[in-house]
Amino acid sequence: FSNVVVTCVVEDILLLNTNTAIQLPPHGPQNTGCILFSSGTTGEPKAVELLQRSLLYQILLTPASLNGPFTDFIVVPHFHMYGLIYLFRSLFSGNNIIFQRSFDYVRFLSMARAYGVVRIGMTPTIISLLAQDRDLPSLNCLRSIVCGAAALDPDLADTVKTRLNLSGSILNRYGMTELSGGAHVPSDLKH
After folding, report:
1. pLDDT confidence of residue 161
2. pLDDT one-digit tens code per residue, 42-95
3. CA torsion 95→80→112→97, rounded to 10°?
4. Helices 105-114 and 124-132, packing angle to 10 deg
5. Which tens digits make up the pLDDT trace of 174-191?
6. 74 has which bridge partners?
7. End-to-end CA distance of the chain, in Å?
8. SS3 127
9. Which helix (H) or strand (E) holds 174?
10. In angstroms, how far apart are the furthest CA atoms of the chain?
11. What region, left, alpha or beta, does residue 173 occupy, with left being phi > 0 and alpha being psi -120 to 50 degrees?
12. How does DSSP classify residue 13?
């Protein structure tokens, strides 16, 4: 994988009103891959510089069972570490990727069925919505859920797995922006 380069330019180039070429940063594992903002544990917002090497390692650490190609639905924001790494992993795996401009629960379920989504990246809040939905439609295409950004209650995961008749797993990953994402995969959450 030595020839894989991940560079994230957090700027909407199409909106720039300029005829000048944009100077891109140099490539290399020790160079900045992206800068995200995090409140961390202090509550004070701060810029977090992530190296290209750190981002690439997070992508390569994806278990083979989570790789595609298949259709992924990403309903977490890409300005958040979890959303960004999930997007990179999906691209690296050659997956089709479905997005929503802003989260709409009813549309989310409709799109998941219409596009035959196999895996969904979501947060514990969305898992909670699924668990509370008394009219939850069948999502026969769905094989697994990757839940991130915070710890997931195992009972909530069990409820959703049963209600969706999920054949695969619900994997809970979370970590710190400063660590490039998934620093924690609880061993006791086996779904």
Report:
1. 93
2. 678 788 888 888 888 877 776 665 566 788 888 888 777 888 888 888 888 888
3. -20
4. 90
5. 777 766 665 555 544 444
6. 99, 121
7. 31
8. helix
9. strand 170-176
10. 55
11. beta
12. G
